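[stage:ingest] chain + small molecule (2-phosphoglycolic acid)
[stage:ingest] validated
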Amino acid sequence: MSLKLLANWKLHGSKSFYQNWFAAFNQSYRGSNHDSLGIAPPSIYISDIARYSSNPGIAIGSQNIDQFSSGARTGEIASRMVKDAGGLFSITGHSERRMFFNELDGDIAAKLDLASAASLIPILCVGESSEERDQNKTEKVLEMQVSNVLRACSTLHSLTIAYEPVWAIGSGMIPEPEEINSIHEMIKDVVQSRFSNIDLHAVIYGGSVNLENSKSIFKEKEIDGALIGGASLNGEEFASIANIFNDLKGL
Ligand code: PGA
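[stage:predict] done
[stage:export] tokens:
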């Protein structure tokens, strides 16, 4: 399975929400293959949605996992629990986790190792802030984020990276697609040249992806997919974005 289009529902949804979501998605999705699709709902729904989504076969995963596998960690969820509940992947290091929950590179590395140990596909999010972008530090910051995290991993053998500029998340602004393309190229180069023991499955883009801009994004060669927040809350829109993705990437 190679996940390419991920819905990040953040702190949204309810039972009736996802039932309606799947009905809308199924009506609009034209593809016969669902292998590249995933949804990260709030963890409390993983188990329920994993059963619900097994046909058509959209992968379910978590938005976060704890950096420990068990212990006195009130309120946390372990990678093996996500797996046990039917999850197939985990997002780690989302900028909202870094910002609101003070996650550091070392914590994120531990999460990636644990995700991998639990046979969850690990997704690492990286991205520069608007200040860093204004100071022309984007490439340097991304290189540091990727290197610091991967250097601190001990058992990780494969991953997907989501490039998510912090200023583009939920803002309606995106970098020029050509710019995203060259950043993805740089990220691939950093991983391949410095961490040859780690298999990089894909570099996907996240930040204000929607139906209008998805075509221009997916046209770029090094953009392997997308992590979609706001627009993924609408089953019809997510399906339409997936249709565009399939058409452009020949799936
Ligand atoms: P957005 O969120 O699509 O609403 O910008 C993306 C994300 O945070 O993963």
